[in-house]
Protein backbone atom coordinates (compact mmCIF):
# COMPACT_ATOMS: atom_id res chain seq x y z
CA UNK A 1 0.00 0.00 0.00
CA UNK A 2 1.38 3.41 -0.94
CA UNK A 3 2.01 6.21 1.56
CA UNK A 4 -0.76 8.28 -0.08
CA UNK A 5 -3.29 5.44 0.27
CA UNK A 6 -2.29 4.84 3.90
CA UNK A 7 -2.61 8.55 4.69
CA UNK A 8 -6.07 8.71 3.08
CA UNK A 9 -7.25 5.62 5.00
CA UNK A 10 -5.99 7.10 8.28
CA UNK A 11 -7.74 10.43 7.59
CA UNK A 12 -11.01 8.59 6.84
CA UNK A 13 -10.67 6.55 10.04
CA UNK A 14 -9.98 9.73 12.05
CA UNK A 15 -13.00 11.50 10.55
CA UNK A 16 -15.24 8.49 11.23
CA UNK A 17 -14.03 8.33 14.83
CA UNK A 18 -14.54 12.07 15.35
CA UNK A 19 -18.05 11.95 13.87
CA UNK A 20 -18.95 8.97 16.09
CA UNK A 21 -17.62 10.79 19.17
CA UNK A 22 -19.65 13.91 18.33
CA UNK A 23 -22.82 11.91 17.71
CA UNK A 24 -22.41 10.29 21.13
CA UNK A 25 -21.83 13.71 22.73
CA UNK A 26 -24.92 15.03 20.98
CA UNK A 27 -27.04 12.31 22.57
CA UNK A 28 -25.66 13.13 26.05
CA UNK A 29 -25.48 16.93 26.06
CA UNK A 30 -28.37 19.33 26.25
CA UNK A 31 -26.89 21.78 23.75
CA UNK A 32 -26.13 22.06 20.07
CA UNK A 33 -22.38 22.51 20.54
CA UNK A 34 -21.53 18.98 19.30
CA UNK A 35 -23.77 19.64 16.29
CA UNK A 36 -21.80 22.79 15.51
CA UNK A 37 -18.52 20.94 15.79
CA UNK A 38 -19.82 18.08 13.63
CA UNK A 39 -21.10 20.16 10.71
CA UNK A 40 -18.78 23.15 10.88
CA UNK A 41 -15.46 21.54 11.80
CA UNK A 42 -15.57 17.87 10.87
CA UNK A 43 -17.85 17.91 7.81
CA UNK A 44 -16.83 21.40 6.63
CA UNK A 45 -20.26 22.85 5.94
CA UNK A 46 -20.48 26.63 5.69
CA UNK A 47 -21.61 28.31 8.91
CA UNK A 48 -24.92 30.10 8.58
CA UNK A 49 -26.22 30.39 12.16
CA UNK A 50 -29.17 32.51 11.04
CA UNK A 51 -32.60 32.42 12.74
CA UNK A 52 -35.47 32.01 10.27
CA UNK A 53 -38.54 34.17 10.68
CA UNK A 54 -41.78 32.36 11.41
CA UNK A 55 -43.82 35.51 11.93
CA UNK A 56 -46.11 34.84 8.94
CA UNK A 57 -46.60 31.14 9.67
CA UNK A 58 -50.02 29.74 10.54
CA UNK A 59 -50.62 29.93 14.30
CA UNK A 60 -51.00 26.15 14.62
CA UNK A 61 -47.51 25.67 13.16
CA UNK A 62 -45.81 28.58 14.96
CA UNK A 63 -47.14 27.43 18.34
CA UNK A 64 -45.23 24.13 18.22
CA UNK A 65 -41.87 25.96 18.11
CA UNK A 66 -39.85 26.87 21.19
CA UNK A 67 -37.79 29.38 19.22
CA UNK A 68 -37.18 30.39 15.62
CA UNK A 69 -35.80 27.63 13.39
CA UNK A 70 -32.08 28.09 12.84
CA UNK A 71 -30.47 27.92 9.41
CA UNK A 72 -27.50 26.19 10.89
CA UNK A 73 -25.26 25.43 7.94
CA UNK A 74 -25.21 25.30 4.15
CA UNK A 75 -23.40 23.34 1.50
CA UNK A 76 -23.41 22.20 -2.08
CA UNK A 77 -23.51 24.28 -5.22
CA UNK A 78 -24.31 27.90 -4.34
CA UNK A 79 -24.93 26.74 -0.74
CA UNK A 80 -28.31 25.42 -1.89
CA UNK A 81 -28.36 22.54 0.64
CA UNK A 82 -29.53 23.74 4.06
CA UNK A 83 -29.18 22.21 7.49
CA UNK A 84 -31.92 23.56 9.73
CA UNK A 85 -32.15 23.06 13.49
CA UNK A 86 -35.67 23.24 14.95
CA UNK A 87 -36.30 23.29 18.70
CA UNK A 88 -39.86 22.27 19.47
CA UNK A 89 -41.98 23.62 22.33
CA UNK A 90 -42.87 20.19 23.71
CA UNK A 91 -40.61 17.81 25.60
CA UNK A 92 -41.94 15.02 23.39
CA UNK A 93 -41.17 14.98 19.68
CA UNK A 94 -44.31 14.66 17.59
CA UNK A 95 -44.12 13.60 13.95
CA UNK A 96 -47.40 15.43 13.35
CA UNK A 97 -45.98 18.72 14.65
CA UNK A 98 -42.73 18.17 12.77
CA UNK A 99 -44.71 17.61 9.57
CA UNK A 100 -46.38 21.03 9.99
CA UNK A 101 -42.97 22.68 10.38
CA UNK A 102 -41.33 20.82 7.50
CA UNK A 103 -44.24 21.57 5.17
CA UNK A 104 -43.79 25.28 5.89
CA UNK A 105 -39.99 25.26 5.69
CA UNK A 106 -39.97 23.42 2.35
CA UNK A 107 -41.50 26.49 0.72
CA UNK A 108 -38.15 28.28 1.12
CA UNK A 109 -35.68 25.44 1.68
CA UNK A 110 -36.09 22.87 -1.08
CA UNK A 111 -32.97 20.82 -0.31
CA UNK A 112 -32.55 20.37 3.41
CA UNK A 113 -31.67 18.29 6.41
CA UNK A 114 -34.03 19.10 9.29
CA UNK A 115 -32.80 18.37 12.80
CA UNK A 116 -35.52 18.48 15.44
CA UNK A 117 -34.97 18.76 19.16
CA UNK A 118 -37.40 18.84 22.04
CA UNK A 119 -37.61 21.80 24.41
CA UNK A 120 -35.06 20.43 26.89
CA UNK A 121 -32.73 19.40 24.03
CA UNK A 122 -32.36 15.82 25.22
CA UNK A 123 -34.20 14.20 22.28
CA UNK A 124 -33.41 14.67 18.61
CA UNK A 125 -34.62 13.44 15.26
CA UNK A 126 -33.15 14.01 11.81
CA UNK A 127 -35.20 14.22 8.64
CA UNK A 128 -33.48 14.46 5.29
CA UNK A 129 -35.71 15.81 2.58
CA UNK A 130 -34.52 16.40 -0.93
CA UNK A 131 -37.07 18.05 -3.14
CA UNK A 132 -37.38 16.77 -6.68
CA UNK A 133 -38.15 19.50 -9.19
Describe the structure.
With about 130 residues, the protein is of the alpha+beta class. It folds into 2 domains: about 45 residues; about 90 residues. Helix content is about 40%, strand content about 25%. It has 4 helices and 5 strands; from the N terminus they run H-H-E-H-E-E-H-E-E. It has a 5-stranded mixed β-sheet, covered by helices on one side. A hairpin with a 6-residue loop joins strand 4 and strand 5. Helix 1 packs antiparallel against helix 2. It starts with a helix and ends with a strand. About 5% of the residues have low confidence.
Work out the strand percent: 15-25%
The number of domains: 2
The average pLDDT score comes to: 82
Gyration radius, in Å: 17 Å
How many strands appear in the DSSP assignment? 5
Helix content: 25-40%
Low-pLDDT regions:
5-11
Strand order in space, largest sheet: 1-2-3-4-5
Q: How does the overall form come out from the CA principal axes?
A: globular
Query: How many helical elements?
Result: 4
Secondary-structure element order, as H and E? HHEHEEHEE
Q: What can be said about the biggest beta sheet? A: 5 strands, mixed
Overall structural class, as computed from helix and strand content, comes to alpha+beta
Distance between the termini: 44 Å
Amino acid sequence: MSEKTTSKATATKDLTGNVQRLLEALSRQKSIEPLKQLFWSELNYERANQPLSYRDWPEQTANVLYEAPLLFATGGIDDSFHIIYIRMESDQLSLKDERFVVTRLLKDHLYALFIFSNKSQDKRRKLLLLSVT
